[in-house]
Design a protein that fits this description.
Number of strands: 11
Distance between the termini: 40 Å
Radius of gyration: 13 Å
Structural class: mainly beta
Helix content: under 10%
């Protein structure tokens, strides 16, 4: 059973930056894909970014809405995945969730709140 814990959320002004972290325990995440999703009030959960590894090659994918502003990365030694968020906008306000993909997005963290003020 994998356990995912997000941290790093908070309140920031538009144009600012935050760095989210997701610590995984119970399973080595580099064997699987890892992703970040978010859910704003009254909206469905949406994909933000994901990362996977194949040998020495790292593949990353982003939603169009965050491309060029967010960067996903992984630290295999710490079993941690991070999401660096720059140039934040009020529409980025949401609860951000970390997830692990095996056969589907099977495991989720509890989420961390990100609030961007205008």
């Amino acid at each position: 059973q994998v356990h995912l814990v997000e941290s790093g959320g908070g309140l920031v002004q538009a144009g600012g930056s935050l760095r989210l972290s997701c610590a995984a325990s119970g399973r080595t995440f580099s064997s699987y894909a890892m992703g970040w999703f978010r859910q704003a009030p009254g909206k469905e959960r949406e994909f933000v970014a994901r990362i996977r590894w194949s040998g020495r090659i790292t593949y990353t994918y982003y939603a169009d809405s965050v491309k060029g502003r967010f960067t996903i990365s992984g630290d295999n030694a710490k079993n941690t995945v991070c999401l660096q968020m720059n140039s934040l906008k009020p529409e980025d306000t949401a609860v951000y969730y970390c997830a692990m993909y095996m056969t589907d997005w099977d495991d989720w963290g509890q989420g961390t709140q990100v609030t961007v003020s205008s």
